[in-house]
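Re: the 302-residue chain
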Amino acid sequence: MSDSINTSRVYETLAPRNVAFIGLGVMGFPMAGHLARAGHRVTVYNRSAAKSGAWVEEFGGQAKATPVEAVQGADVVFVCVGNDDDVRSVVLGPQGAFAGMRPGSVLVDHTTASAELARELHAAARAQGLQFVDAPVSGGQAGAVNGLLTVMCGGDAEAFDAIQPVALAYSRAVTLVGASGAGQLAKMVNQICIAGIVQGLSEAVAFGERAGLDMKQVLDVIGKGAAQSWQLDNRGKTMVDDQFNFGFAVDWMRKDLGLVLDEARRNGARLPLTAVVDQFYADVQAQGGGRWDTSSLIKRLR
């Protein structure tokens, strides 16, 4: 995987830290790679030992067989796994990260998970003399590879100040948006926006095609005006070409929207468009598109 990260990335000068990275999926693998390239001493853990071995072969550092071993001596521990249950499995219990972290060290959870879990882990960390920051990311696989993620953080200011310069190895912005859980809530806001934008773009492209327009040309034109968005710039023309083999899968989006809708039921927010788009994504899953990119919403309209 020698091309897994952008090797032209310019890193900030920062004293090397001992860090651990738990979870080497499509996001975690390049994120951990940026930490190593920035000069940090990185130890990794992944459920698949083969993936850990591949990471060490490419970036150096070392791999351990359990989370509790991987975090020994780490100043900062990063986690990027699948969902709430996955986070609990690598953080809690006798083999989990909390059991091996030294007092005062910080665990940063980059998983898109529930705000409820973030508050639970924040309380558990404090009880053990540790620190915790919930820090979901936006930017997808391309953002991870190119070191240009946006990180939304919730937690205590002291913990945030400790991890921000380290996380900038793979990010263009790392921002504290509030207390524990606020990072996850901000990510939910992000996903609500994306759901509506992608559905609107899908309808626009499908409409233009039915009208006989050259949609690539039209997208170039409207992309210079008020309709411009990241989704239009990066997914509009691939929608036209019926290409959906990009980083962020429908299955993951449905997981995220499930978190959004659960939170809305708790706080009383009304999300009619989000609920409808979630069902549209269910239709895409039923078409066999669970691993297609989120821009595949247009498949329903063709």
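Residues 182-210 form the longest helix (29 residues).
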